[in-house]
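Trying the structure run again after the queue cleared.
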Amino acid sequence: MKRVLIITYYWPPSAGSGVQRWLKLSKYLPEHGWQPVIYTPENPDFDLKDDTLLRDVSPHCEIVKRRILEPYHLAKMLTGKKKLNTGIVTKKEKQSRLSQMMNWVRGNLFIPDPRVIWVKPSIRFLKKYLKENPVDAIITTGPPHSMHLIGLGIKRALGIPWVVDIRDPFSKLDFLDTFNVSDRSRKKYQKMEQVILSTCDNVIATSYSMPEMLEDFDVSKFKTITNGFDSEDFEGLQRSTSDATYLSSYTIYHAGLLNALRNPRHLWTAISNVKNLDIKIQLVGTIDPSVIEIIKSSIGDRQELVLEGYKSHDEVLQDYKRADVLLLLVNESYNSKVNIPGKLFEYLAMGKTIIAIGKPTDDAIKLISDLGFATFDYSHQITSDELVDACSRKPIHQDIDMYSRKSTASVLARLLEALKNKDV
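Done. Tokens:
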């Protein structure tokens, strides 16, 4: 069996969307003759934990772990917080002086991210490891984009075929705007990105438009491999909504990070204006307090709001089953075009009604719109009639097998085969 080294910061029991992509791809790669060798930190800093994901780790996987010095441990000590909520976007004027200072340090000294201090020790270790345990290809996945610097060092030292996986933009990552990045530092991000993209053999990404959000590179090296759904996760789950065209009540469900970059204010207002219809808003995961404030002020006592913290992936799938409408929110930012949330494909697998909010030019919005579901721009003032119509739309029957994790793993395996044969 051929071997591929996958360098990823996120691995079970770490939870959240970042871990799912390579957990699932590595689960099915062995079916195509590739053994995954996972290189990941032994002591990563993460706030979300899901032990149920461990069962998806392929028995064919070789797991290699090394300790990492985590700057976020120090940040927690300085702030006195057990959890930093790094996904919460806080405007500069609302940040404390300590937060402003820490954000400046994060954006200007730790380039491209705080895990950069793991790069040199990892290169030293992997150069020795790979000479004793050869692989046929290397994949690095980011964020954190410092993982690509490890791949760069190995490529330069050993010349092993190298694939860069971009899940979010690099120098154009929207979060960088909250870190007070100087022009000089921004150029460092851009130069680093250029070197990585020009040195690697292939670039893959989760969206079709990602090259538009990257520094110029040879796009002939680019291929989209979207996220997807694992059919095994959906065995025994209901995959269709009620046969009734209109229901007397709806549960609108969203799980995951909900911050200021994806707060659909006009949706909350539309929900509050609906008459003769009970709507429950169920939100699961990390939610910005400012967003909760806006929702409560919008709907008052007219509709039900249920707020729940983090849930395991299994629990979220059960929630999908009980919900009537699944809400997809694409970041309201300049790089939203390339944001295709992983949950989109699980929504399709459930066969539920979807309401999506984002720009018409966003890859995710185009996909949902083509399937006949309702999509709205964040600036659109949704009427109550539009909302009722959106909630009642039924999914168009289509073949979604191309988005299964088995299918995407097959695409990846073919890319690795071509890369190996080219190297030979």
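The domain at 231-392 is CATH 3.40.50.2000 (Rossmann fold). Worth checking whether this holds up in the mutant runs.
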